[in-house]
Design a protein that fits this description.
This protein has helices at about 10-15, 20-40, 45-65, 75-90, 120-135, 140-150, 155-165, 165-190. The protein is mainly alpha-helical and about 190 residues long. It has two domains: about 10-90, Orthogonal Bundle (Rna Polymerase Sigma Factor, Chain: A); about 105-190, Winged helix-like DNA-binding domain superfamily/Winged helix DNA-binding domain (Arc Repressor Mutant, subunit A, Orthogonal Bundle). The longest helix is centred in the N-terminal third of the chain and has 23 residues, at about 20-40. It starts with 7 loop residues before the first helix and ends in a 6-residue tail after the last helix.
Length: about 190
Amino acid sequence: MRNVEVSDNDLIVSFIKGDESGLKVLIDRHQRKIFTSIMLLVKDRDMAEDIFQETFIKVINTLRSGNYQEEGKFLPWVLRIAHNMVIDQFRRGKRMPMVRDTDEYSVMDSIKLTDENIEDQIVTSQIHDMVRKLVDFLPDDQREVVILRHYADMSFKDIAEQTGVSINTSLGRMRYALINMRKLIKEKQLVLVR
């Protein structure tokens, strides 16, 4: 099966009928976005890989049992499952997800720097570092929307579906996040220019 030409729904039907390659194409097509979304929330590669695998075990079981009813919405459905798995993982660990850098992973790795010259790269890196630190000061719901929108490149519709809120709530959280970040910039007298 060719990855680009076949719709997600056709691949799902193919998998349900017994063609395992349909699922492989679906995973190949969406794994980067799903894994990035998980990784940004858990900040631990091993945990993210475990949650990614658990997510697809649940997806496979749901598809095989005939309970999949999200026609045309495969990716948001899988992202919602992954998000719920992350929440379950943190509930089991009795801690809330924090978006912090570790030795293995930096949110900055998700941002492509320009290749103009080394000076531009350094300045851009410093700006991104300051922005990342500002994001860390945001309330959890605002931080989550900023990360999913700007680092996981998700639409507000997908963010709303994944987080279980309305699109207006997602937009509102982004608006308040930007307002709060502007206040922090003023309070800390930061200059974010390139």
